[in-house]
Amino acid sequence: MTIMESRKHGAADGALGGRLTRLDGTAKIKGEADYAVEHDLEGLTHAVMVQSTIASGRINRIDTSAAERAPGVLLVLTADNQMALNSATTWMDTPGPEGPYQPLLREITFSGQHVAAVVAETFEQATAAAALIKVTYEEMPAIFSLEDPKGGEGFPIDLMTKEWGDAAAALAAAPVKIEAEYKTPREYNVPIEPHGLIAKWDDDRLTVWEPSQWIDGMARTYAEWFGIAFENVRMISPYIGGGFGSKAFALPHGAVGIMAAKMLGRPVKLVVTRPQTFTAFGGRPGTRQTIALGATEDGQLLSIVHNSANETSMDGMAVEPLGVVTALMYATPNLSSRQNVVRVNTVTPGALRAPGENPSAWGIESAIDELAYELNMDPLEIRLKNYAERDQEADKPWSTRQLRQAFDAGAKTFGWAKRSHAPRSMRDGKHLIGWGVGAGTYPVRRTPGEALVRILADGSAEVASSGIDMGQGTYTILAQTAAETLGIPVEQIRVKLGDSALPRAPVAGGSQLANLMTGAVYKAAIAARDELVGLAINDPNSPFRDLQANTLTISQGRILPPREGGEGIAIAELLRQIGRDKIEVLRNTLPEDKQSKADHYRNFSTIATMQSPTDGDYSLHSWCAHFIEVRVDEDFGTVRVSRVVSALDSGRLYNPKLVESQWKGGIIMGIGQALLEEGIVDHRYARVINNNLGDYLVPTHADIPDIEVISVGIPDPHASVLGGKAVGELAIVGVAPAIANAVFHATGKRIRELPISLEKLL
Ligand code: MCN
Ligand code: MOS
Q1: Lower Cβ count inside 10 Å, N or C end of the chain?
Q2: Is the predicted ipTM greater than 0.95, yes or no?
């Protein structure tokens, strides 16, 4: 896929650090972008999923006869006639469960579990026939959510335990303490493009068009499920309508769609409906955390005791790391953080923008605010007083931590100094006004990833990688990196992404892709450029054959001699004169000493190959501080966010326009989480009932005020090849507690359970 050029760009815009507009933007807006399920293939059939209506039990009988007789129906799949697939390696690179993999089961462990699929000539026929399937169940009692006492305390996840000093004793002895419980409900990714795929078999070769955050990982799972070589799977995903963590892994409906295509010998399109997306994969699990803080009378932290739990499914394991921010944000001589996981009847929860960091910050950033009020201290002052100068858990220095600068810049721009401390002390007519602060952090993750750079005969260049762009800006920043490094105008760079036939890339998850792929492109481009200069100097047919090495420069697509030595020649002209049709270089993003590990996993850079942020001499993280104003209508309990100023440290920014957009997107999701988002579970049926965008509310433009974002980062050479840190998930961290803290300041009511809906304020 080639990018449509969106407009003419200034040279500075095209360089690294320039504000180049998204290269994929125009095609998306004009409807020219080819989304996965929009392909119209010869003989395409349509599949529709049927989901369980009970949350726990067994299918006694599934009557498909009426559906099979319905017009246009080609195949009805159930647990009884599905293909037996192989169990696939997990994303941590460990073997999958014993026995075959079956996407359709007779045993039911959550409401909305896939139980059947109907394939027909048209989507309408498949939908009509799906309604004719009759399932009779033997129902068992279900555990509806983390709120269900039947779920109990769950079981501990020892890997999550963090412990130093003697937190319990220090808390008991502390002169000032607070303790409270903080909760978050189930939350959902709800990308506007729902999940779906088109699968097509040609003998034992499989082509899948599917939106994906991780082409190689999903292609690998499909290869294993269907017992074919990885090379025989082609995953194509050039455009993705958002993912937010939900499109990284192969899902049961994908297995069903591919299986149906195999069994029918025809291509199959399967798209889950919006309500079905609420159980076809999991969003953020429900969480609860108890935090106790002990401090001196002048606000120095002495102890943090943190006990948390998240829900997981009956047969899957999802751990939402709730202690990650708790242990990083503030200096404390004593800390204990433990986490349990509780089994409930739900689909296995998944990843939603900043899994772990987001709810973790909700806890600690609310608790520190409570402590500030207990001490009658300014909430910003207490944060600065307990500033963590190093990573205490890893016992390593931060590579860079511009959090103090973020607090300073944010407070100054927001006007924090004008805040009056007491709750309910600021008012505008019938609106109570509240100002709150909340901080956040996100780690820098590193996984092997490759990019290919190709300088072509016409002097233009191509960048290729199976990495993806779901809107975050990969196409654009990779074009900028290649343009600047090669000395070729950005208009002459084509970036190809989202195709498993291209060099391997890791998951666009964990906010790592930008740093990894710009690193790989930079290395490949430097090497390609060196090769070009080498040829220019050494080739007997080159006009520069008599020159010394390293005296040539490349700019605007021309190779220039030293000083005022003339106009130089165009790259295309040089390649023609020396008889080369291209220069091609492949590079991996990891440093050379990590390459053997990378080679081992080259084909599938799994999450097991991801380096932790403390793997090395430093602790690598991005940081942020949000200053938020709310207006609360006293009569109705409605909360509006009226002003946001956030200052963030993501290191060096490759494209500030796109970074600002990413940060604002994260903040907007944080506002949704604080005020609107809640999967409401009907306790009787253990079912999420608000499973559409009319009932599961996400923010609209009218909910969002002007958001001001300020970059306080400095290039961080330890974090990545080009000095950037994490961007994509950072800004959603810390927003919800900043809003809850502002609501407390406005109203005097401390809301400890999200979302902050109006009934909680009345
Ligand atoms: N960037 C930059 N300079 C840096 C780092 C990043 O200019 N130093 C910019 C680039 O435009 C880059 C973007 O920020 O494309 C995000 O970079 P990064 O933080 O590395 O995140 P990833 O590319 O790995 O993207 C994944 C991340 C995650 S994990 C979620 S969840 C999320 C997010 O991105 N989902 C998104 N942002 C999203 N944005 C959109 N539009 N849609 C989603 O589904
Ligand atoms: Mo993002 S939740 O790590 O895909």
Answers
A1: C
A2: yes
